[in-house]
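quick one, 539 residues, struct below
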Amino acid sequence: MISTLHIKNVGIIDDITIDLNEGLNILTGETGAGKTLIIDSLQIISGGRFSKEMIRKGEEFSYVEVSMYLPEKEETEQNVVVSREIYANGRNTCKINGRLVSVSELKNFMKDIIDIHGQNENQTLLDVNSHIKYIDEMASKDIHELKEEYQILYVKYNELKQEISKNFGDDKEKQRELDLLKYQVNEIEDAKLKRDEEEELENLRTKMMNSEKIAINLQEANAQINQGVIDGISLAIRAMEKIEGIDEKYQNSLNSMKSIYYDIQELSRDIEGYSEDAYFDEEERDKVEERLDLICTLKRKYGNSVEEILKYNEEIKDRIEKIENSEEYVNHLKEELKEVSNKMKKIAAEMNKIREDYAKTLSCKVNKELQELEMKNANFSVQIEKEEKFNINGLDKVEFMISTNIGEDKKPLLKIASGGEMSRIMLAIKKVLSDVDKVSTMVFDEIDTGISGIAANSVGEKLKAISKKHQVLCVTHLANIAAKGDYNYYISKEAKENRTKTNIKKLNEEEIIKEIARIASGDINEITLNHAKNLRKIA
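---
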């Protein structure tokens, strides 16, 4: 659950910190005070999109941070701090417990922690392609492994189909490709490339370009050693030989001198041997340049290094073999595709059976919830049809159908439900799925749109029920729902020094009663306060 939410420079929010709790957290307040900005901030910290227009006027960045207690996430510490800082130039800094992560890593981490439902999700519910995910969420325990196995095969299936299509060209196309590939192989193999050759040639060319400089300095070095150093050390050795018997230290110094003398003689011979580095004929120079030019040409065509060129050569030889044996190769691919396809059909059939079972369960439970949400005439069902072609989820097309009035045929949600009905249908589904949903925090932004009276009271009861197993944050404008809160927060705004900023306050019981009265009638008096107390008592 979220224990603390810190928001800075988001819209009219200057800098606020909200300490949240388990159970049902209700957010109410003035229109335009920043309630939606708090939900937007939760979207941001969940890896959602961010518009630079959301940065508070006059500031260079927005910052959102949440501190969470996550005993159910075994792979992380139980206390986790997640932050996201976004600058006007679009730069993002995301951190999980101080460790820098990408936006996609942040999104993947948070997807199992916070589930945000607003009016946009009602639109998702109208998207037929999203319906299958609700069934699979409910059936997760039974379908998860099958679905993973199927999706691995689905990737392989598409790879095989693509490979087969590449090998179905006509004879002329195959011959053209074959001619080109054989030309490339011949060009590479005629060059007789060696893996370290280019580096050796570059070293040799460097010596050639500096041959005169090498000759002059080798000659100078050799002259200095032979004319000065060797003769000088030789004389010194003779002198020390005359006194070596007087003291052991003279003997030691003499031995060192002799060792140095032999080392310098060896060094002199080496330097004399280097002289060949200084002499190259023009024919040899031309050969080195031609060879380097050839390697450069092949690199432009086939790779950035000799290693890449040789690797590419092996790849095109493999391709040549496949083309020359294309009929046999394609037949092999077709057999493999058939085998994969049969496995997928088998798994898809197993997934279909599981989905059919859970579709009945979901339909039954959602209808029960809709009854309690004052949609007594509604009849919800899940329709599953088999498709011809494989898709990422198998061979099933899932669509939610509903009839909201007695005597009407069931139709897709898009053609039936109003805004208020959509909010209740989504809440009913969320309520059913909450028993299996591992998400710790559920956020409902204005779930009460388009409803009132008894329906609003039922919505409040559903939110309360969900909050028994999940932390719930709910922005509402209805007294019936606000009365159900375990913790209530009041969002307001104030103008100060020509700037507007958002304030938030956790309400005590007396303040909660007054806020419920305000929401209920817009006026706080003895009658509205008694009504608020009654709503609170019932809750």
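The first helix runs from residue 35 to 45.
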